[in-house]
Amino acid sequence: MELSNPGLIWLSIGVILFVLEMAVPGFVLFFFGLAAWITALGCYLFPWSLNTQLAVFLVSSLVSLFTLRTIVKKVFLGDAKDDDADSIMANGGEKCVVSAAINPPAKGQVKFSGTFWRAEAEENIEEGEVVEIVEQKDLLITVKKIR
């Protein structure tokens, strides 16, 4: 097999793209690598011109990117709904201690599971009080007094 064989070149490009996928975030290069391998297979089976090779690469890149990306991301990264189950609110009603007074609309701070979190509440809560977690939005916890 010649070094200038188009199928071998496309196969090599695909391998390079797969290796680069490990170094670059975003999970996109994988699909271009897959398209390069599809093009390599086509070059091996048919005597395609350069224009045909580029067209097959372009079409297979776009088709694989838009159709397979969501499926493959779910397989490798998990479903986004499962991430919510890992939040501190999974069990609901967790208790924590206020470490910096919360005076709305200003945020305060609570200590939960050995970690300090920014916290907000609808009412004034003094430092040292035990509160209940109502909601978590990213790194902000909404709390309420225990009555």
Would you kindly provide a written description of the structure presented here, covering whatever features stand out?
The chain is of the alpha+beta class and 147 residues long. The chain has two domains: 6-78, no CATH class; 85-145, OB fold (Dihydrolipoamide Acetyltransferase, E2P) (Beta Barrel), CATH 2.40.50.140. Helix content is 47%, strand content 21%. It has helices at residues 6-23, 29-45, 50-77, 80-85; strands spanning 95-100, 108-112, 115-120, 130-137, 140-145. The chain has a five-stranded mixed barrel with strand order 1-2-3-5-4. It is rod-shaped. 20% of the residues are buried. The model has no long low-confidence stretch (mean pLDDT 87).
Largest sheet: 5 strands, mixed, barrel
Terminal residue distance:
80 Å
> What percent of residues adopt helix (DSSP H or I)?
40-55%
Mean pLDDT metric? 87
The total beta strand count reads 5
Indicate the proportion of strand residues. Answer: 15-25%
| Rg over CA atoms | 27 Å
Number of domains: 2
Q: Per the principal axes of the C-alpha atoms, what is the gross shape?
A: rod-shaped
Number of alpha- plus pi-helical segments:
4
Q: What order do the SSEs take from the amino end to the carboxyl end, as H and E?
A: HHHHEEEEE
Runs in which pLDDT lies below 50 for 5 or more consecutive residues are none
Structural class: alpha+beta
Major sheet: order of its strands? 1-2-3-5-4
